[in-house]
Amino acid sequence: MANADNIRFDDQGLVPCVAQDQATGEVLMVAWMNREAFDLTESTGDLHFWSRSRGEIWHKGATSGNTLAVTELRLDCDGDTLVALVDPAGPSCHTGARSCFQDGEPDSPAIHEVLPGLERTISERLIAGDQDSSWTAKLLADPSLAGEKVEEEAEEVVRAVREETDERCAEEAADLLYHLLVLLKTRGLDFADVARVLASRRGA
Asked: Which DSSP symbol is given to 183?
C-alpha cells in the first residue's frame, strides 16, 4: 500500500485517485481523496473518496452496494496521483455502466479490454442458458464438446506455427483462447484464476 506520508496533497488537501479493476486492468472511475478518505480506505478495505460537491466523505457504493474493495493503493513517481486496484461489487458508474468512461462508442476495444469483454459475453450466454441462441451457449451446456474443441484448436495452433503464416498462427491462437475460456467457464473459472496462478509462479 502507498504511504500516506509520501502523498503530495494539493492546496485543498486533495489528491486524484484512479480506480482500476485489478483483474482486468480496466479503468473504472476517477475521484478525489483527502487524508481522511485515504485512512478510511486503508482501515476498511473499501474505497473512500472526498466529495467536492457535497463537502463530505463518500464511501463508494455504500448506498447502492456497488462497493470497490481495494487490493492495493499505488502512488505515482511525483507523489500526486493514486491508483487504487479494486474488485468491483457491481457497476462503478452512477448510470449503471461498468465504467464511468463510456461516453460514446469506441472504434474498437483497447487490447487489454478484449479478454474481459469476451468473458462477460460468455457469462451472459451462460446466464441466458439458451443452447439454440449461440455456439457459445451450446458449448457451455456441453463441457465434453467444449473440451474436444480445445483439443482440436490446440492441434491447429501447433500446425499453424509449424506450417503457416504469422496471421494464421494468431487466428488459430484466438480460436484456442476463446474455446479455452468457454471450457473454464463450465467449471466456474475465468482468466483471472489462471492469472493468479501465473503470478504465484513469477520468478520461479
From this structure: H
